[in-house]
Amino acid sequence: xxxxxxxxxxxxxxxxxxxxxxxxxxxxxxxxxxxxxxxxxxxxxxxxxxxxxxxxxxxxxxxxxxxxxxxxxxxxxxxxxxxxxxxxxxxxxxxxxxxxxxxxxxxxxxxxxxxxxxxxxxxxxxxxxxxxxxxxxxxxxxxxxxxxxxxxxxxxxxxxxxxxxxxxxxxxxxxxxxxxxxxxxxxxxxxxxxxxxxxxxxxxxxxxxxxxxxxxxxxxxxxxxxxxxxxxxxxxxxxxxxxxxxxxxxxxxxxxxxxxxxxxxxxxxxxxxxxxxxxxxxxxxxxxxxxxxxxxxxxxxxxxxxxxxxxxxxxxxxxxxxxxxxxxxx
Length: 330
Description:
The protein is built from two helices and 27 strands. With 330 residues, the chain is mainly β. It has one domain: Neuraminidase, CATH 2.120.10. The strands form six sheets. A five-stranded mixed β-sheet has the order 1-26-25-24-23, with no helix packed on it. A five-stranded mixed β-sheet has the order 2-5-4-3-27, with no helix packed on it. Strands 14, 15, 16, 17 and 18 form a five-stranded antiparallel β-sheet that branches.
């Protein structure tokens, strides 16, 4: 099922009251997960529709440490990327992928010069490397389409997304979006890239990506943060790609009383929010058209984690294809 054929808007399947889970369990999920919490020390918690919040089993070795981040959860919710730091071999870093359901683990591909490699799972891969000639002002972007490789002449470097993957792929149209920065002028832009030929279809200046599901399902809007003239630097904005207009989400955040994080788009009208209120964590679908909040889940906040929980990451393709994956099993 494609992204434009999602089964329902989330408000069409939302229960009258949020499902409450009394405690956190430990184990592996029974299927793909719609979101996860990640924290220090390789800790991760994922949502399972039947068991609630699950603390993933420790999969570290005796002489290694694991590191998770905002790029860890795959968009389909089936795997988790992490980095293993070996204390035994001069603290060498190795990228790995773990299957969340089976627990199987294996090495993850990386580009030359040990930089990230991003794949859409459909034959397209974007490698980003520091230039071998030592040019500091730009990185090398190489788009792989099947067996063919295209070096893109961007003259810029990848910009960091502090709450999601730096490069995010559309689910159906063969496009990628990412932020770039000109290291000489510090100018920031967000680019839309055609994955078949490497053409830059759009350049949107003075915005950067935020969130783990930055594309709206119809691909008309992005979740971003303005890099100039932003009175609320911690509040994301929605960006209309056609009109070039920004709408602040500050009113949506301040309407809640707890600590709020925005993960990304559920459908074309709703965003996924998490809200920490004391020892509880609420998962919320917020309607951008009406400003109303639909509380989906009421979960125990991981006690042992405390401030070490760094944020929420959403499996955007999974959720947008079927928003009901956010709900507890009935």
